[in-house]
Design a protein that fits this description.
The chain has 24 helices and eleven strands. It is an alpha+beta fold. The strands form three sheets. Strands 6, 7, 8, 9 and 10 form a five-stranded antiparallel beta sheet that branches. A four-stranded antiparallel beta sheet has the order 2-3-1-4, with helices on both faces. A hairpin with a 5-residue loop joins β8 and β9. α4 packs antiparallel against α5. It starts with a helix and ends with a helix. The C terminus is likely disordered.
Length: 740
């Protein structure tokens, strides 16, 4: 592989006009496609195989005009102080609003608060429910505008009006912190390279790669049902890996220049060596992201595949556009160890002439001398950070997790105030009595059984379909939707349903957004172990091929488990316990998003393997070229520590930029990935890994002979390039002899 990539690097350097034009053309094509594509909202949400989804599917069959998966909205009214919603003036305002809402072309039904018993006991709060024909992502802007305009008219009548539900879905805002993250990355690159030109190359290529990836996602969003969260995730991961991959190749290019190679040759060798590490690091990230499909949640699968596509683009750009841009930069990109005068070039030259070892060398030498102490300290520290993960509670966010500045959150709070917290998460029971001898008796039995359960406030009368063989019943819990008590109630209803089926042959299915969230959490929990085995297993095999070792990949996998558990502990401490919540802008604590553990396992594993590949391949390269194991560790840090540190800081800066998002899921993902990179890069890869390798010595690189013969030789260390050197020298000697 090293020889092939070497040729790719030299070709891109020589044919830089063609390569640059090709990528600019792709960016333009993707941009035009995104600009001309129809807008798409949030992705539709279906969970195949869950009881809640089966109930939705049954409703579509038995209640064809019901639009079970259609968007809903609740317009909540609150009377001015000292007044009631039943007062004549306030009642007239509400009735006018109901009439206005009923005129919408996509509206199925609008309830009258005074006929539907939707006025609070104290008479101060009322609400109307609006049901639409289409899902929230398919709702036209005109319907949303009409909903908001109706609220404005009611406010003009003196009422407090807030609107909740999925009809008002908005694109998440990331805020200024995203820009700050990119600015921090730029500063780190300038400090690392000591050159504005060299620092600008990774940023430029990363932005081009993300531009192509996100534009392609936007262009295909409507056709493939991709939501706004998909492009946000692709941007987050694409920026981080795009900058890092380019950083490693530019750094290796400068190292090759420092050894006296010509620029084209240095570009080829940089791509042949660091580029090999980039390919395998990118493969681990792609495996982890595409592996999310095993969970069988379409939305999660699409997010993973789209982000994986952006990572693949980042790899291709690093391998081709970076050497092309290095050709344009010429002598403005200086050899390693040299900096521009503006950025301390003279000071760096004095240090180099004094022969003082760099920070990476000094740190590795310290770890090699005291491996046991460093190993114990790292493991204990990560173990302590992981302790909060033992109290992890999972759930999916609802309007109660929105910022208090949003109308959805204020509507949620008003409903809780007027009708109780459980009113925001009603459960819908679908009774399929088609096989029952007496459908009505079966439905009555269900109603009676559910009324007797703990935590039930209200059970509405059953609504039958035309055939009279299926009914829907709404159950209002006493606790809020995301509570453990509500989850227990859902399980209790399903347990009672099993007994009812045995007695009456009627099936009882529990659905609604609350039940769907519970089913999603359970599905994700059940999929976590198979997903972990699949992703870690495939990456383990890949790393065996890369490092030609059993213990090094095993150590990499165990180190990842430590860092991801510590990161989950930090997420629980902030988003569930509320530590530092004010500093991070977390307005509402509660259960951790149910997708978070499996998502962090996938993404963090891929990113963790980046640092493992980049750092340990340098050690492997030194060991293959004859150095003793301990010295190889020091050599690996001498050449790689500074760059890996810069890469980790850049990733942390990019991920931290998304903590400023208005979307709680994006905020949580940004924080979780940033803290996971910190734990993995600076504690696992920079401390635990060299300590373990120092303790293992030569055993770290042990591989059974039969397996060594069976494995393909991918030559990540660039051994083939050494042979190329010898061939070049032999050719030169032959030419000298001919001249003589």
């Amino acid at each position: 592989m090293a020889t092939f990539l070497y040729k790719v690097g030299r070709f891109a350097f020589r044919r830089r006009h063609f390569v640059a034009l090709l990528w600019v053309a792709l960016l333009t094509l993707a941009g035009v496609g995104a600009a001309s594509a129809p807008a798409a909202g949030s992705s539709s949400f279906s969970i195949p195989g869950t009881e809640a989804q089966k109930a939705f599917d049954l409703l579509e069959q038995r209640f064809p005009g019901m639009s079970a998966d259609g968007a809903t909205a609740r317009v909540v009214f609150k009377a001015p102080a000292g007044e009631k919603m039943t007062d004549a003036g306030n009642k007239a305002t509400v009735e006018k609003t109901v009439r206005e809402l009923s005129d919408g072309s996509e509206v199925v039904s609008v309830s009258d608060p005074y006929k539907a018993n939707a006025v609070s006991k104290d008479g101060t709060i009322a609400y109307t429910s609006v049901k639409y024909k289409v899902s929230g992502m398919e709702l036209k802007d005109a319907s949303r505008d009409a909903l908001e305009d109706a609220g404005k008219d009611a406010r003009a009548g003196g009422l407090t009006v807030e609107i909740g539900g999925d009809a008002l879905q908005t694109t998440p805002e990331t805020g200024a912190t995203e820009v700050i993250g990119i600015a921090v990355a730029a500063v780190v690159l300038v400090v690392t390279f000591g050159s504005l030109i060299a620092a600008g190359l990774p940023l430029l290529t990363a932005l081009i790669g993300v531009g192509i990836g996100v534009s392609a996602i936007t262009a295909l969003a409507k056709a493939l049902d991709l939501g706004s969260t998909t492009s946000t995730l692709a941007m987050m991961i694409g920026l981080a890996v795009g900058i890092d991959y380019a950083l490693f190749i530019v750094s290796r290019y400068r190292a090759e220049l420092a050894e006296g190679r010509e620029r084209e040759e240095a570009a080829g060798r940089a791509v042949g060596t660091a580029g090999s590490a980039v390919v395998f690091a990118g493969l681990t990230v792609v495996i982890a992201l595409v592996g999310l499909s095993v969970v069988n949640i379409p939305m999660l699968t699409k997010m993973g595949v789209a982000a994986a596509g952006t990572v693949a683009i980042a790899v291709l750009i690093a391998l081709t556009m970076i050497p092309a841009l290095l050709g344009y930069a010429g002598r403005k990109v200086m050899p390693a160890g040299r900096k521009s005068r503006l950025l301390g070039g003279r000071r760096a030259a004095r240090k180099a002439s004094a022969g003082r070892p760099n920070m990476g060398t000094r740190w590795a030498s310290f770890v090699v001398r005291r491996p046991v102490a460093v190993l114990l300290l790292g493991v204990i520290g990560l173990g302590a950070a992981a302790v909060p993960a033992t109290s992890l509670e999972l759930g999916l966010g609802d309007d109660g997790s929105q910022p208090t500045s949003t109308t959805q959150r204020r509507a949620y709070d008003l409903l809780s105030e007027g009708f109780g917290p459980g009113f925001n998460g009603p459960l819908m029971l679908v009774v399929d009595a088609k096989d029952s001898d007496s459908p009505k008796a079966a439905v009555d039995k269900v109603t009676h059984e559910v009324k007797g359960l703990k935590d039930v406030v209200t059970v509405t009368p059953a609504t039958y379909n035309k055939a009279g063989d299926t009914a829907t019943i709404t159950v209002i819990p006493d606790s809020k939707p995301s509570s453990v008590t509500t989850e227990d109630l859902v399980h209790s209803i399903r347990a009672a349903g099993a007994d009812i089926k045995a007695d009456t042959d009627a099936k009882v299915l529990v659905t609604g957004s609350t039940a769907m969230n519970i089913d999603v959490s359970q599905k994700l929990n059940d999929a976590l172990i198979p997903y972990l085995v699949l992703v870690v297993g495939l990456a383990f095999l890949l790393l065996i091929v890369v490092f030609r070792s059993i213990l090094v990949p095993l150590k990499a996998a165990l180190g990842f488990l430590l860092s991801v558990m510590a990161a989950l502990g930090a997420v629980v401490a902030v988003f569930q316990w509320g530590w530092l919540s004010g500093l991070l802008g977390v307005e509402e604590t509660g259960p951790v998003m149910s997708m978070m553990p499996i998502f962090m396992v996938g993404v963090v594993f891929g990113l963790a393997m980046d640092y493992e590949v980049f750092l340990v391949t340098r050690m492997r390269e030194a060991h293959v070229h004859g150095e003793k194991p301990a010295q190889a560790v020091v050599t690996g840090f001498k050449h790689g520590a500074r760059v890996v540190t810069a890469a980790a800081v850049i990733m942390m800066a990019v991920f931290s930029g998304f903590i400023g998002s208005s979307e709680s899921m994006i905020k949580m993902i940004g924080f979780g990935l940033a803290i996971a990179v910190f734990f993995d890069a600076f504690i696992v890869r920079m401390a635990i890994v060299p300590a373990v390798l120092a303790l293992l010595g030569k055993r770290a690189w042990w591989l059974p002979k039969w397996l060594d013969r069976a494995l393909p030789n991918v030559d990540v260390e660039g051994e083939g390039l050494k042979n190329l050197d010898r061939d070049t020298r032999d050719d030169d000697e032959d030419r000298e002899l001919v001249r003589a």
